[in-house]
Amino acid sequence: SMGSILGTAKSYLEIFPLLLGKVIPNQAEFLAPLISTTIGIAALGGAYGILYTNPWNLYTLAEQNAIPKATFFKQLNKYSIPYVCVIAEGILCCSYILWLKGSQIPLQYTATLSGIVTYTISVLGLMKIEPSFLALLGLITCVTTLFFSVRGFLYTNMMPLLVLGLILLFGTMTFGITIGHIVMQIHRLNLRCVE
Predict the structure, then answer these.
(1) 3-class DSSP state for residue 173?
(2) Which of 20, 35, 96, 180 has its CB surrounded by the most CB atoms within 10 Å?
(3) 3-state secondary structure of 146
(4) Side-chain-facing half-sphere of 159: CA atoms under 13 Å
């Protein structure tokens, strides 16, 4: 929609003012800060949602004994907040930021790749449940975007890709432990029913 004018932008901060200047030039100067503020608030809301949800996800895994030292992570403070999980998330976030020296580009690539991996898993599930041409197109799209996303790491820093790989490995192991735990509980229930 912006054509060659996008090439004049020095950073992503200039994109919306350029777009507004092209679409509604008379109101662009007034609306640009409003649009930027709205985008910032939306990003802050999304970040809060992630920061709020992750400790509870870790707490849920601990409740199901799917992680090592689960009883340690199940501790709640007087406000019923899993404070050990919050501290663990803070340590992970700070470590990641310190490790990459505050560079935002690898973090953006990691977030994008994580979303693509999640979408790919969903499309694989769709292909298994209901194979269709649409599912095949989705898989082709996933493979293409995975290729370009991984390629982006070659131009910045490969370490986030390795970290994401370790996180995926840990997640897969946790999933396997959880499924094994559920199967064992079902097996115990079946044995009790037989007795």
Answers:
(1) helix
(2) 20
(3) helix
(4) 12
Q: For the full predicted model, state whether its pTM sits above 0.90.
A: no
Which pair of structure tokens corresponds to residue 134? 């649409």
- Rounded to 5°, the CA angle 11-47-151 comes to 50
CB 5 within 8 A of CB 18: yes
- Closest residue by Cα to residue 2 from 29, 32, 24, 23: 23
Per-residue pLDDT of the chain (195 residues; tens, 9 = 90+): 666 766 677 776 777 777 787 888 888 778 878 888 888 888 888 888 888 888 898 898 889 887 888 899 999 999 999 999 999 988 888 887 787 776 666 677 777 887 888 888 889 888 888 889 988 999 999 899 888 887 777 766 677 777 777 877 887 887 788 788 788 888 787 777 766
